[in-house]
Amino acid sequence: MVRAALVMALSAAAPLAAAQAIQIPPLPFNLTFKPDLSKVSSDRRSDWCNGERAVCDTLCGAPNTYPTKNDCDPGNLQFACTCQNGTAPGLQYYQNSLPTFICEEAFEQCIAASVGDSTAQGKCNTDIRSLCGKQAAKAGSGGAATSSLATPASRATQTGSTTTPANTARPNSAAAVGQLSTFASVAVAAAALVGAYAL
């Protein structure tokens, strides 16, 4: 009896705590290999969003002017960047932007899926990696950039080094709600277990 109640409680909580599929947000290019973004850790997605917001700020003229819209949700990777003049910079051309991080993840997963097949790995390079942003955004440049090639090794350093300006608060209520939801589902499972044990 207790065992059946435990199984029911845990099976009811499992779907709530399981990683949900993350849809690829609309990108300005077509990826021939669709990455599984649910394989990307929440910490790494948060780093991606920090990079995205920093690139948006820079391209829109920070520190002199800031974008009117600069959103990135690490929970579902939906993002938006609009400068004060109403334009959206071509984020896909820049290192540390969300389109570039997603592109690089697609490349890495494509290579991993093609182990032992040099032809397929070559296609990963020409069909995917060639689309990934390689320019570094320049502060206050209004979108002008210098060329700089990002390598997979340097990408790990770049993702951890991006910051949002200190005077720009970026609360992440979506992540807090997601954590609260996971906590609540674990609490429900624990309560069901204790209740079943009391019987």
What report would you give on this structure?
This protein has 6 helices and 4 strands. With 199 residues, it is mainly alpha-helical. The protein has one domain. The strands form 2 sheets. It has a two-stranded antiparallel sheet. Strands 3-4 form a two-stranded antiparallel ribbon. A hairpin with a 6-residue loop joins strand 1 and strand 2. Helix 1 packs antiparallel against helix 6 and helix 2 packs across helix 5. It is globular and about 50 Å long. The chain starts with a helix and ends with a helix.
Summarize the structure in short.
By secondary structure, this protein is mostly helical. The chain is built from six helices and four strands; from the N terminus they run H-H-E-E-H-H-E-E-H-H.
Cα radius of gyration in angstroms: 21 Å
Report how far the terminal alpha carbons are from each other. Answer: 9 Å
Largest β-sheet summary: 2 strands, antiparallel
Number of strands: 4
- Write the H/E string, N to C: HHEEHHEEHH
> Class by helix and strand content?
mainly alpha
How big a fraction of the residues is strand?
5-15%
Number of helices: 6
Domain DUF7707: 36-136
Signal peptide: 1-19
Region (Disordered): 143-171
Protein name: DUF7707 domain-containing protein
